From TrEMBL:
<dbReference type="InterPro" id="IPR051260">
    <property type="entry name" value="Diverse_substr_monoxygenases"/>
</dbReference>
<dbReference type="Pfam" id="PF00296">
    <property type="entry name" value="Bac_luciferase"/>
</dbReference>
<keyword id="KW-0288">FMN</keyword>
<dbReference type="InterPro" id="IPR011251">
    <property type="entry name" value="Luciferase-like_dom"/>
</dbReference>
<keyword id="KW-0503">Monooxygenase</keyword>
<keyword id="KW-0285">Flavoprotein</keyword>
<protein>
    <submittedName>
        <fullName>NtaA/DmoA family FMN-dependent monooxygenase</fullName>
        <ecNumber>1.14.-.-</ecNumber>
    </submittedName>
</protein>
<feature type="domain" description="Luciferase-like">
    <location>
        <begin position="28"/>
        <end position="373"/>
    </location>
</feature>
<comment type="similarity">
    <text>Belongs to the NtaA/SnaA/DszA monooxygenase family.</text>
</comment>
<dbReference type="InterPro" id="IPR016215">
    <property type="entry name" value="NTA_MOA"/>
</dbReference>
<dbReference type="InterPro" id="IPR036661">
    <property type="entry name" value="Luciferase-like_sf"/>
</dbReference>
<keyword id="KW-0560">Oxidoreductase</keyword>
<dbReference type="GO" id="GO:0004497">
    <property type="term" value="F:monooxygenase activity"/>
</dbReference>
Amino acid sequence: MTDRPLKQIHLAAHFPGVNNTTVWTDPAAGSQIAFESFRHLAATAERGRFDFLFLAEGLRLREVKGRIHDLDVLGRPESITVLGALAAVTTHLGLAATVNATFNEPYELARRFASLDHLSGGRAAWNVVTSSDAFTGENFRRGGYLDRADRYTRAAEFVQLAREFWDAAGTGTVRHQGPQFDVEGTLSVPRPPQGHPVVIQAGDSDEGREFAAATADVIFSRHSTLAAGQAFHTDVKRRLAAYGRKPDELKIMPGVTWVLGDTEEEAVERAAEIRRAQVSPATAIAYLEQIWGVDLSGHDVDGPLPGTDPVRGSGLVQGRTSLGDPLEIAAEWRAVAAAKGLSSRELVIEVTGRQSFIGTPRSVAEQIDRHVQSDAADGFILVPHLTPGGLDEFVDRVVPLLQERGVFRTEYTGTTLRDHLGLPVPGRR
């Protein structure tokens, strides 16, 4: 660290969807469909003076062995619809929706986000995701036509065209001819209050980092340990100059969990209990099957990893993000399990755990501040293990300590999401 002024921490809240983060067996777990759940989490985040609420989204329920994955049975309402309703019951909180750039069209998306930005008074954000998944593509006319190598090519032109529509709104016609889109038209709503809604991106590959440096305002990163966060922060920020951008024009916000206790020991014990609840035996089996590509329903999760090699491309599990080459992953996992003496379930707990801040409220506040002041992150997107009340304890016990340290706002000083993030309003191009 240097003698520079203290960096201000950015915080956002993630509403978990279909996943194994939420402990659905906990009596305090509520609905992920009912509007009251979304309203409660949004109200808590706004009470904590968070920058924004973040909704993920999937376009098809995952399948394991030809059946819908147990954790996906309920699904979740479409994100922009939910956020439009939340705009009416919040006043400052940013509203971030995940919308796929592969299976949507720029005009229609630009219109929807411009509408949300107007209805919320300038609080909309778009998390840009892509897909080369033929399984997901079966829900759409185009199917799974898009090669994996082309997904960021389409996304970059998609974002460019959406911004052209936002810039031309109320002033003229957009005429665009490119490799992916040939469009001529006018946006049917005025230019958004923020100029452009905030753009969020989550890709971690080299092409994803380059796409973010050229295009995004926020990165939803997975690099949440101190060393990994610093390396990622340095790499992405250095890329900005090539696009005429300054380092503070892109905020890096890893997704993290947290567990609090009155003592450090209590927090560690509670964290272990939560992780075992998150990874049930059935969840561990489903995760192993994603790598091994074979039916493991008879496998003992309290014993060692399967002794056979994975089967590439079996199609047993569909709709899950690829983790890489299954043979290489299995070899890495066996090495970790052998080194640490882990059973199959314990190994899944080890490799699927998102970096957590674990400790007393004061030590968690210190950990978060250390990461930000050390340039491992600009802030964090908090992922609670309970819906909808999981954020309450953090807001009540940790936020006041961050405010006491002078690194987090006590009141909102602006009304738009760009105000909260310290991002400039783009001029018309």
